[in-house]
Amino acid sequence: MIAEIIAVGSEMLTPHRQDTNSLYLTAGLNDLGVSVAFKTIVGDNRRHLVSAISVALRRADIVLLSGGLGPTEDDLTRECLAEVLNLSLHRDPEVLANLKARFAARNMAMPPNNVRQAELLQGATLLPNANGSAPGQWLDTVFQGPDDKPYRKLAILLPGPPKELKPLFDTEVKPRLAEVLPPSYLARRVLRMALIPESQVDARTAPIYSQFTDVETTILAGSGEIQLHFLCIKPTLAAAEARVNKLVELIEHEMGDEIFSSHDESLPQIVLLLLGVRGHTLAVAESCTGGLLAERLTAIPHSSRVFLGGAITYSDRSKTALADVPAYLLEQHGAVSDPVARALAEGIRRRTGSSLGLSITGIAGPTPATGIDANKPVGLVYIALTDGEDTQVKQLNIQGDRDRVRLWATQHAFELLRHYLQ
Fold it and tell me: What are the residues whose beta carbons fall under 8 Å from the beta carbon of 102, sequence distance 6 or more?
């Protein structure tokens, strides 16, 4: 079975508010073996919402609507669903009594327009909302499909505020869905690769994953990383996992060491894991990344077991004071150079007593550097890694704005370290 989520509210069509409810609902539906095929955001417009509901009921088995259950004139979800299904609305006396009691408990008179929240769709089941005034509704109904044949549909109305929607979905909707849906289980895996073009990944993996028509494959690209998401739904968990794992096995064989994670771990997580396995400790010296490398490491709990710390050596003076970079190297080669990157890595290793030292120096932009580095291009970055006996230096020319240069520099640094540790 497939589902569609409709988020109702004009505020989510502005730059100021995002629909986060659909992410939570998708995770919950996936737990039940239900795939979300469509997500729609509709403003508080009757004609638009009627159209969106009609389309959703034609193409999805389960339609969840979040928002638009309030007391105001632009809260239209109940009325629009009733119009599409040609159902009446009736005022439920129990809901109305609960609404009045809710206001009385706060020593407030209930405004007349709150009466609208007591209106239930013909044939709907009330879903109590313990955290707000708008109850949800569950409707098991029939609607004509694209072939004009009647099909069973589930329409579920949920309040918009996340603090109301989430507990109501968990306590009222998921148990009902589990009762009426056929048994199905969802298995998923995520493979992650760094610094490889999306087109190259797809060219090598498409001949493999296209043979698995029962596994949904999605390729996501961004932030110097490619992710392959695999999802399969079967009557048993073992059957779903077997199909996904078989596909992953073939993809891993094709992509080899390009894959840094086969269970959705981040690149910093993998690096920290490898440091621990190999018995190494790490310290970093950062110039153009300004602590981003260390931040990505320390965002992971317990990283202090292998990550000793480091220094933000942004100025030439700090490179000498904190990482013992000789002043003559800076004068002769400039801060953005192979010798200085090498000296930074070696110096921070000595100063901290770590077994490995990692450094980044570069020109993040948007304006060019000055002094001896003035003729060097924006995006020029040097990364160095040392273990005390050997020092590797990698020169990069990263395209893009300042944020992209800094992020990709850390991504290259992690990959250099990962390959060393493997």
Answer: 110, 133
Rounded to whole angstroms, how far apart are CA atoms 129 and 144?
31
Is residue 67 helix, strand or coil? coil
Report the CATH number that the domain containing residue 250 is assigned in CATH.
3.30.70.2860
Are residues 205 and 70 part of one domain? no
Whether 163 and 227 share a structural domain: no
Q: How many CB atoms lie within 10 A of CB 277?
A: 11
Please name every residue paired with 216 in a beta bridge, in sequence order, or none if there are none. Answer: 231
| Domain boundaries, position 213 | 185-261
**What phi and psi, each to the nearest 5 degrees, are found at residue 17?**
-140, 135
Last residue of some domain: 246, 261, 276?
A: 261
* Partner residues linked to 155 by β-bridges: 63, 139
Q: Which of 261, 278, 308 is the last residue of a domain?
A: 261
pLDDT digits (tens, 9 = 90+) for 317-375: 999 999 999 999 999 999 999 999 999 999 999 999 999 999 999 999 999 999 999 99
Both 165 and 287 in one domain: the answer is: no
- How far is residue 137's CA from residue 155's CA, in Å, rounded to a whole number? 8
Which amino acid is present at 290?
A: G
pLDDT tens digits for 76-96? 999 999 999 999 999 988 888
> What integer pLDDT is reported at residue 99 of this predicted model?
87
Q: CB of 344 within 8 A of CB of 359?
A: yes
Q: Do 45 and 156 have their domain in common?
A: yes
